[in-house]
Amino acid sequence: MSVMVQDLHFSYGPRPLLAGVDLTIEPGEFVALVGVNGCGKSTLLRLIAGLLKPSSGRILLGGAELGTLSRRQVAQRLAVLHQSLPPVPALTVRQLVRQGRYPHRGPLGLLWESDTMEQALELTGVAHLADRVLDTLSGGERQRVRLALAVAQDTGILLLDEPTAHLDIRHQLEVLELVRTLRATRGLTVVTVLHDLDHAARFAERIVALHGRRVWADGKPKDVITPELLAEVFGVAGRVVTDELHGTPRCLLDTPL
Amino acid sequence: MTLARRRTPADVPDEPGTHTTAVPRAGSGRVAAVAILFLVVAATHLAVSGQPLGAIAGLLDGTVNGQAEKIVWELGVPRLLTALLTGAAMGVSGFVLQATLRNPLAAPEFSGVNPGAVLGILGGLTLGLFPADSAAGALLAALAGGALGGGITWLLSAHRDPANLVVHGLLGSALLAGLTTMLLAYQPSRFGNALRWLIGSVDGRVWEHLAVASWWIAGGIAVAWACSGMLAVLSPSDDHAASLGLHPGLGRAVALTVAIALTAGAASLSGAIAFVGLVTPHVARRLGGGVLTAAVAGAIALAGADTLAQLAGHLLNGTHRLGVPTGVITALAGSAILIRLGRSQ
Questions:
Q1: Which of residues 22-41 of A touch B (CB under 8 A)?
Q2: Would the ipTM clear 0.85, i.e. be above it?
Q3: Given this model, what pLDDT does residue B314 score?
Q4: Could you read off the pLDDT of B149-166 as tens digits, one per residue?
Q5: How far apart are CA A106 and CA A70, in angstroms?
Q6: B99 in Cβ contact with B160 (< 8 Å)
Q7: Pick from A103, A101, A98, A5: which is nearest to A52 by CA?
Q8: What is the DSSP letter of A14?
Q9: Which whole-number Å values give the CA distances from B306 to B36, B158, B208, B262, B303, in the listed order?
């Protein structure tokens, strides 16, 4: 499912945070959003998810204007992995993943078991954790369970806000590999906020850099990840080399400018 | 790759240690155990009423024969049903509040709803809006008061994090309790009658009282059960709920309305029974259950508490007009259980 953002403006107060953002994401693309803290990456994600209302501009999900869709219709098209999931006492993995069926079945439908939910547990490799209490899982397991919830939601679009935050390097790779697999097997359109530029270059096929309230650069990793990007957008002096194994750019960061 | 390392439940038999943190799923054995506990508590409750056991057993034939059976049928059984219904309503109300407000200390008595309902009943009686024996009048007054109490809490915490609602609920509850005290100070002669509402008691309820409240509470629990999925989606955060297609404000409004309705129903029968609505939802969640588990846990808890209250009343020789109010037992037992739960978490 495609995502289209046209001339989007947004401000929390008098100061605009986003001014004139244009972005067209084709069905099945894997896009990484990068930029400094507070540049509006997460805000853009929330706007696309319909959790915030733009001051002006249009957002289309699969051709349908976001404003004309109900909350439930949006949730049938698009799943969001927010930065954190606050703890819920005694909530089990199965109970959480079942909630993914809410947009399709409504509150009464959740009272019965669902095959889609079981498949989601299998696909994300957390079936063996199904009866565990969520708060007893490790960070990596939790992220996989949350991806299972997104899979159970059975949407065309998956938005992720820093899915690798607070994970060790092995689990960072595992989560991103799982996202890549899910995207390939389920034809998902993936838009993720990432802080690690090397991860963005390695896993996304397209990188969008936000800077100065709009899209500063948009293209293939090797075209976007440059010393100019590091200097202009992130304020860091650095070099960019090519990872010979993967053929993707890697950043060697030297010093803040 | 992750998928290659995937394990299915069959690969992981019940090794010791792997299931230590698992919540057992409700099996038929568990249901049977709860049903037996329920029956034992109900039977014990009737048995300690002071009437001969033969009179209780005699009711099982479906007819009421003789004076002793009549007393059991017209006082003992309604008292048991009052305890069960009130307990179930408070358990579900607390469960709904804790899920919606995302605070394990949310409870009818701490959200302004229960004190408001009691103020509504006492205010209505003082102003002579309804006769003291009117079940529907008490329910309506409790509803109005409960909505007022919930509304005050709501206004105090408007546009703030729902988790803070409990703090404002405590403030609102204190305010309403203060108003109730003023009301009583204004007419101290009514204090004796008011005591049962203030402390909470299931004593002296007869079939007429139950006629209205039983339908009300059963309906409220059914609605709460139908809202189970909504409560689950609402529990983690507003963002989570919205991303799954539920408008969080709307969901919260529906859930709070159900909680107020149930609390008012309970208060119109038994007054301000404390701690049942606070503690039993914790028990229900620990058992991996939902709305219905909270209802059963609340019913068993209050019937059990009232059994103890009756026993304590016999020990004190029953000379006091009120006996030992059930609310005293729930307050004592509830605080002890809560301290235990708090330490083990």
A1: none
A2: yes
A3: 81
A4: 888 887 877 666 666 777
A5: 13
A6: no
A7: A5
A8: S
A9: 18, 38, 20, 20, 5
Does B2 contact A178 at a Cβ distance shorter than 8 Å?
yes
CA quadruple A83, A88, A92, A95: dihedral sign = negative
b/e burial code for range B207-225 (CB count within 10 A of at least 16 → b): eebbebbbebbeebbebbb
Range of the domain at A242: 3-256
Compute CA distances A64 → A74, A77, B6, whole Å.
10, 10, 37
Q: How confident is the model at residue A185 (pLDDT cuts 50, 70, 90)?
A: very high
Does the pLDDT at position B13 exceed 60?
A: no
How many residue contacts between A and B have a Cβ separation below 8 Å? 117
CB atoms within 10 A of CB B60: 7
- A51 at interface of B, judged by CB pairs closer than 8 A: yes
**Minimal C-alpha gap between A230 and chain B (Å):** 32
pLDDT tens digit string along B165-220? 778 888 888 888 888 888 888 877 777 777 788 888 888 888 888 888 899 999 99
pTM, whole model, 2 decimals? 0.86
Query: Residue B151 has what pLDDT?
Result: 85
Cα angle B40, B46, B47 (rounded to 5 degrees) comes to 80
Does an H or E element contain A150, and which? helix A139-153
Region label for A209, one of left (φ > 0), alpha (ψ between -120 and 50) or beta (otherwise): beta
Give A 138-197 residues with CB within 8 A of chain B: 144, 153, 174, 177-178, 181
DSSP state of B234: H
**What mean pLDDT do residues B48-56 have?**
79
What is the domain partition of chain B in residue ranges? 81-344
Question: What is the 8-class DSSP label of residue B290?
Answer: -
pLDDT at B4 over 60: no
- Count: domains in chain A: 1
Q: From B7, which residue of chain A is nearest by alpha-carbon distance? A: A128
Residues B265 and B216: beta-carbon distance below 8 Å: yes
Q: What percent of chain B has pLDDT over 90?
A: 29
> What SS3 state is found at A191?
strand
Specify the CATH number for the domain of residue A61: 3.40.50.300
Compute chain B's Rg from CA coordinates: 21
Q: Which of B223, B230, B244 to mutate to test the interface with A (most CBs of A within 10 A)?
A: B244
pLDDT level of residue B318 (50, 70, 90 thresholds): low
Whether the per-residue pLDDT at A145 is higher than 90: the answer is: yes
Task: Name the token pair of B260.
Answer: 């107020």
| Strand partners for A240 | A251
Please, how many CA atoms are within 13 Å of residue A115, restricted to the half-sphere of its CB?
A: 0
DSSP letter for A158, please. Answer: E
Contacts of residue B227 in chain A, CB cutoff 8 Å? 107
Select from A43, A77, A104, A110 the residue whose CB has the most chain B CBs within 10 Å, as the one to mutate to test that interface: A110
For A26, list phi and psi in degrees, rounded to 5.
-80, 160
Task: Please give the helix or strand (H or E) that residue A19 lies within, else none.
Answer: strand A16-25
Q: Which CATH class is domain B81-344?
A: mainly alpha
